[in-house]
Amino acid sequence: MSKRPSEPRALTSGTAERLAAIVEAAEQAAAKVIDDAEEQARRQLSEASARADRIVAERLRALADELDPPAPGQREPHLRPVTSVPEPDAPAGPRSGSAGARLLATQMAVSGSSREEIAERLRSGFDLADASEILDAILGPEE
Amino acid sequence: MNLTDLQALEQRYLMRTYKRAPVEFVRGEGALLWDAGGKEYLDFLGGISVCSVGHCHPEVVEAVREQAGRLMHTSNLFYTEPMVRLAERLSASSLGGRVFFANSGTEANECAIKIARKHAHRRGISAPEIVSFERDFHGRTYGSLSATPALAANPDLAPMLDGFRAVPFDDGDALHAAVGESTAAVLIEPIQGEAGIYPLSDETLVAARQACDESGALLIFDEIQTGIGRTGSLWAFEQTPVRPDVMTSAKALGGGMPIGACLTSPEAGEILEPGDHGSTFAGGPLASVAALAVLEIVDDAALLRRVREQGAKLRDALLALDGVEAVRGRGLMLGVGLEDGFDAAAVGADLLERGLIVNVPEPGTLRLLPPLTVDSDQIERAVATISAALLSYATHEQASL
After folding, report:
1. How far apart are CA B60 and CA B334, in angstroms?
2. What is the pLDDT of residue A53?
3. Is 90 exceeded by the pLDDT of residue A47?
4. What is the per-residue pLDDT across A73-125, written as a single tens digit (0 to 9) for each?
5. Is residue A2 situated within a structural domain?
6. Is B230 exposed, middle or buried, given 0-12, 13-18 or 19+ CB atoms closer than 10 A?
7. Within an 8 Å CB–CB cutoff, is residue B396 touching chain A?
8. In angstroms, rounded to a whole number, what is the distance separating the alpha carbons of residues A48 and B180?
9. Does some domain include residue A116?
10. Alpha-carbon distance B156 to nearest alpha carbon in chain A (angstroms)
11. Which residue has the higher pLDDT, A129 or B132?
12. Percentage of residues of chain A with pLDDT beyond 90
């Protein structure tokens, strides 16, 4: 009989329940990460589009002024952007936002890191002084 | 045949591509090596992060021994069970997609580059570009070499492949700006290994992920050195806030047997088709049973926790030494930055004399990659040896002034 690496050992019922809870929590966290990422992507697309419109508008104004300088006393250039462009509501947050923190915590939990290790990593990487909300969502509330 | 005989034959018959240390090793066990004269060495290099389960781990040895006596090679024209089982295990433990086996890390990266370029062509990009960081090391075959800026600059090896560019290390804004419509992939090491152990910041990793998401490019992690438990998780990406689309593995995967693997997400796994890539030896049963045995040992929560704990212990002890300015890295992948005035090459040579094997990847840095199974006594012995070597160097320098 050939020797092969042994099959994984059967999990005890307590471990299995704990694992199932982690997996379920991880799946929920992952779904939220995806939702957040999609929302973030939509916001960034909107902001990028607004920035592009502003650049086009400014360029059109400059071109118009070069081709047809405003008469003395005339305050507005002849050409104007087709539509006015609203300013974005607020500047985008840092790139390493909460979605990244949750994904980091989820991946670390799945890879076997402890609550303390994940909390420390979130503190050092994301300046998260209190990571309990993320940790509770992924690992369940602290007992 | 003694060392002098070996060196004479080397001079006559081997290409002059390596500068070997004057030691002939004849036996290894765990974290220890013995030379032909019977001298014992503590190996904190592990064959450059290959022997992560230690030298001649009995389970790896037994798996290889048994398989070698039964079937060594058939080619990829046929099925062999170890390869398929290994693919299943690697996929399930990483990105959930498909696996392409190779014989080395650089070959695994060649596969990743092909995936990226084909994916780009499907998106209508005629001249796809791959973006990496300066000082990245991805290998020595021409595709991987072209993504390794420091080596690609060698004019004697020109021309490199078109379609590669590098941005300053850990500069997320530069990376974000470099990624555009023609970008096929961002190919990076989450922790630069050959450069001297330099981790990428979370912010840069997130910037890379976002840049890829916005442009449609693939994010490729070269985990050839960081993978297989080296950083305290099976894969380094698991301790980062991002998930790559493609990743590459090699080195420790085979426990000393040559093997590489390109691992994908489910989507990226659909890109290559019959005829796009291949290898005669890759995924052979001998290397595959070795890799299965390695994963059986390393993919273990208790061992990985121990790697993190031993790594923290080693880091703290090194930081307390006179002459050590900084310790970089994660888990048991550490770069020891020496204070100005210390010649790392001289310290490394002295350490070898004292029976401790380390590597000097750049002036001023010692690279430590001990087996993941290293014990506390061996860590204390290594730290004491490094302390003695640094003290000796400082004393000698002082005396020569």
Report:
1. 25
2. 54
3. no
4. 443 433 333 333 333 343 334 344 678 899 999 999 988 999 999 999 998 88
5. no
6. buried
7. no
8. 14
9. yes
10. 41
11. B132
12. 14
In whole angstroms, how far apart are CA A118 and each of A104, A114, B22, B159? 8, 6, 44, 46
- Cβ contact (<8 Å) for A111 and B234? yes
Asked if residue A71 belongs to a domain, the reply is yes
Instruction: With CB atoms and an 8 Å threshold, state whether A3 touches B63.
Output: yes
Contacts of A4 in chain B (CB under 8 A): 63, 289, 292
Closest alpha carbon to B238 in A138, A109, A27, A101: A109
In a domain, A9, yes or no: no
DSSP B243: -
Query: Does position A59 have pLDDT exceeding 70, yes or no?
Result: no
Q: How far apart are CA A79 and CA A61, in angstroms?
A: 6
Could you report the per-residue pLDDT of B305-362, keeping only the tens digit for each? Answer: 999 999 999 999 999 999 999 999 999 999 999 999 999 999 999 999 999 999 999 9
Cβ distance of B202 and A96 shorter than 8 Å: yes
Verify whether the Cβ–Cβ distance A125 to B202 is below 8 Å.
yes
DSSP letter for B163, please: S
The beta strands (E) that lie in B273-330 are given as 324-330
Q: How close is the nearest chain B Cα to the Cα of A68, in Å?
A: 35
Tell me which chain B residue has its CA closest to the CA of residue A126. B202
Taken in order of first residue, the domains within chain B and their CATH numbers are: 3-56+301-400 (3.90.1150.10), 71-298 (3.40.640.10)
Q: Which residues of B110-138 are buried (b: 16+ CB within 10 A; e: fewer)?
A: bbbbbbbbbbbeeeebeebbbbbbebbbb
Domain span at residue A73 reads 16-84+96-139
Provide residues of A within 8 Å CB-CB of chain B: 2-6, 37, 41, 44, 94-97, 100-101, 103-104, 107-108, 110-114, 117, 121, 125-126
Query: Min CA distance, A85 vs chain B (Å)?
Result: 22
pTM: 0.81
Q: Where are the alpha helices (DSSP H) in B35-80?
A: 46-49, 58-68
For chain B positions 173-212, those within 8 Å of chain A (CB to CB) are 202-203, 206-207, 210
Total structural domains within chain A? 1
